[in-house]
């Protein structure tokens, strides 16, 4: 199938900083491709190279078979990470302003409804909440009914309900044939929306595949987390290996990792049917615990595993395999991991 978005061996430096180092990807028509990776990995630079707002030093980028600077803008929708629209416009005026830039735009009110802001048309943009503003910005990329959509962190700052509105919108667009490249730090978002995911690290894509394939290859085993300060050796009677790990806690409302770590023991590769035996063992030993949670590996485990491998390659030593992911699928933010990876 012909690629709609294609990057081949893209290189980009800013002075001494290498932003892209041989980034390659190929996105066929109608696919949603999720680009994930640590802060500074080069995601925005790759999006900018693909949308013609930065010139790569080497390599080639094409969209719909054309150079990004030559493509008919009517066919593209681009949401930059730091989009700041003109001041002193209402939400409806703002969408009408962008609609006015195209020959056959969509009705601004229909776009407002699509992003879940049908009632906010008369509100000044500056009076909208941050998440509502971001939804208007997402809407502004849709006024020309684009064939290809680039969304750089589309749901950052949007509350869980609004995020789901945007997710459903992206799903509908994809079902209608729109090709989408989105960047995100939210692994649940990537897992839900993306047909394929690419992990960008140090300017190149180190893994690409369907979420299922990536989880099967890099996700590891299922895991029972026991919130307890107890020593792993006290559970030696179990036939499983038990290790200490640290579990990040975080604030659900704003997607950020927030409040340090809790002591956690992890039992790997355990069938849910065997959890009762673990509970019995804890109680026999008189060990206090505040919670138990069983999880199957997911995209977040893939991210953490690959980030850990990168760290080990870089340092030639131990990575951060003790890091454990947060347990709320709606609030996965890997910024901290990214900065240390
Ligand atoms: N205009 C610029 N001038 C100088 N350095 C830049 C510029 N744009 C990006 N960089 C650097 O290039 C690297 C990649 O940045 P980029 O914004 O592409 O990463 P990212 O993966 O999008 O990060 P984040 O997840 O934080 O948004 C970083 O080290 C960044 O500091």
UniProtKB/TrEMBL annotation:
Record protein name field: ABC transporter
Coiled-coil positions: none
Gene3D superfamilies in UniProt: P-loop containing nucleotide triphosphate hydrolases
Family matches, as CDD domains: ABC_DR_subfamily_A (cd03230)
Residue spans of biased composition, Basic and acidic residues class: 308-328
GO molecular function, one term: ATP binding
Residue ranges, annotated region (Disordered): 308-341
Entries under PROSITE patterns matching the protein: ABC_TRANSPORTER_1, ABC_TRANSPORTER_2
Biased composition (Low complexity): 332-341
Domain ABC transporter: 5-227
Classification via SUPFAM superfamilies: P-loop containing nucleoside triphosphate hydrolases
Keywords from the named record: ATP-binding, Nucleotide-binding, Transport
Highest taxon above the source species: Archaea
Pfam families: ABC_tran
Family: Belongs to the ABC transporter superfamily.
Source lineage: Archaea, Methanobacteriati, Methanobacteriota, Stenosarchaea group, Halobacteria
